Amino acid sequence: MAKLETKSVLDIAKEAKVASRSLVSLTTKVKNEALLEMAAALNDNKTAILTANEDDMSTAREQGINESLLDRLELSADRIDAMSAALRELVMLSDPVGEVVAGWKLPNGLLIKKTRVPLGVVGVIYEARPNVTVDAAGLALKSGNAVILRGGSLAFKSDLALTEIISAAAVRAGIPAGAIQSLPSADRESVHELMKMRGYLDLLVPRGGPGLIKMVTENASVPVLWAGAGNCHIYLHADADYDMAERITINAKVQRPSVCNAAETLLIHKDIAEKFLPRIVDSLEQAGVTVFGCPITKRLCSEVETATETDWRTEYLDLKMAVRVVDSLDKAIEHINTYGTLHSEAIITNDYAVAKKFTEAIDAAAVYVNASTRFTDGGQFGMGAEIGISTQKLHARGPMGLTALTSTKYIIEGDGQIRD
Amino acid sequence: MAKLETKSVLDIAKEAKVASRSLVSLTTKVKNEALLEMAAALNDNKTAILTANEDDMSTAREQGINESLLDRLELSADRIDAMSAALRELVMLSDPVGEVVAGWKLPNGLLIKKTRVPLGVVGVIYEARPNVTVDAAGLALKSGNAVILRGGSLAFKSDLALTEIISAAAVRAGIPAGAIQSLPSADRESVHELMKMRGYLDLLVPRGGPGLIKMVTENASVPVLWAGAGNCHIYLHADADYDMAERITINAKVQRPSVCNAAETLLIHKDIAEKFLPRIVDSLEQAGVTVFGCPITKRLCSEVETATETDWRTEYLDLKMAVRVVDSLDKAIEHINTYGTLHSEAIITNDYAVAKKFTEAIDAAAVYVNASTRFTDGGQFGMGAEIGISTQKLHARGPMGLTALTSTKYIIEGDGQIRD
Question: Which residue of chain B is at minimal alpha-carbon distance from A362?
Fold first, then answer.
């Protein structure tokens, strides 16, 4: 560790760039062997990992960190096994590098091949969740990228221990040194340096809350891909089937309220408000949900809390739901496009034209007809492991699989062609 | 014009966002009719355009602007015809919006369709070249985006006249007002405001020199796609055919030296330096090229200038070329990956393994074997009009056609699915 601590962010970025030059042409076989070696090394070094984690945990406890953050920080033998298993699962995914995405021949005989290549060097900034260290390193390696990791400062010792163990294992399997590194300092300054490493960093992925994403997008001079918040809606159109409406609303809100694809606001057409709202609000409340309603909702269900403008904007990530009665499909679309975060939005309807208009007009990564928003997920979509769910429109939108960590390159084969 | 000048950048961005909501679902037919109406309006309003341009030209002359910039700024009846023609050519290109990029069915019956959609609102910042105003507006409209234009301040009146004419024509053809706007102020502050319009601007495209791109990437909080500089190389391997090597080198340097895909440095393997270099340097000089050589080049061709570190980094955009003798393929690759700008790179060789290694190891948007770098171009690649040539790795790399102005969206059709 002493050696690492003397390195500057620039040195680390340079080493990563050098490593990325060799990673480009590594075979899938070598990368998969390295993933297995890394998985084995985690198992072989449980004691060292748990010791480092205990240090982090006791510092965090001294700082009075709350239980849910402590839970995300804490490692156990089982959790280390789960990290190993995640690496072994990556072996099963197909390698995106080398895919010929398109190819054609020009009239002058030039053969153009658009081929998939690694991005180069990827930086990942995340919270104090040591499992992300291993996940991100594995995803970067499988897609042929060098990675620079920076977890939350509370997990500093755990992350450093994990990085040293998996990096050494990767090197033993033929991966260049410098392919997997973490920033050797827990201070904020090094994060700021990292996001300015233009020419070295090909991508920076901030994984975390709105504060982190805001800081990165406002300060980074390297390209950024963010996994943003999900202020997701369920809209019950005038013709919605009650049973389906209730089932999907409850599932989208209650099944796992702490995740980004959980629903936060229920919109309901005025024509069915009187009939549906009291029942659905009752079901929500029975499921433990606190409801915040618009004036009409409050009139129909007197016991609900009052929703304010803030509620329309809030990603509760909790057993809370805002409810608003809308006059029309257009008003529902307007509400969602105003307050939504371009994540996942659902309509419940059996009207063909209404469904078509909703899916066209809603500006979001995933738009559902008659299904729960909870399906927006790389695993659910059948992509295997995901880097996150992109709510930006450039490069990758929605669940991001391994290809989100790649670019393309044109290879042009000629026999002496010049331009007229 | 008076009305426009009272609008804030935020007002413009908001109007563009509103317009973008309707643009999403416009048919190709309506967009094409608008392009034709815009083309006709340019022809019908030549006098007004030329008057505004004369104002700009006389101000520019008073400021002592050099001839080449004046030439780019100046409009004529012929140049207005060319802008019209460019709009009509866009009609012939296929509309990227609505393409189903991929689709599959999940085990639970959910049908997922990944469909191509407009980005939303695109900002374009460019130099004092009024033709870019029309090109960018046409490309944005054809791909279903609202656009906010900001040309160089020298062209302020020309750009405003053009924007008013084509915007009014588009509205007559059924395009929402606000779809085509330009910033109503020539000051730098409005550009800075534009690049902070997060939540309104889905993409900002800086078209211009390294200064503009640096300013935008360092200050923008919206996603940026840049068309960067091209410090392109030709590498002659030890087995290169002399005639092909000379033909391609001369073409890449001389055919149009002012563009980004022109070659700037010639690398040559040491084994053929003595035989090739005097002849090829002589040919370059006969074509009017000033050569800057490494020490070995200087020994072999005494008349050349001395190349310094700066020469390896310079995009001359002029009849100048740096020449360096390298010891090996690896040294050539190292030089290019160190000094190149990820644009276009070429090798001349007949060795299969050497060509394979070069194309794999070189980190650039376009890598050529036995062809001139001058082919990196949307038109040459058969894409039709291009927005520019991306030297970044995210979203779009190399020549950018209409699809670079699009994103995708997942549309998921269910019949009541919830997540377990």
Answer: B21
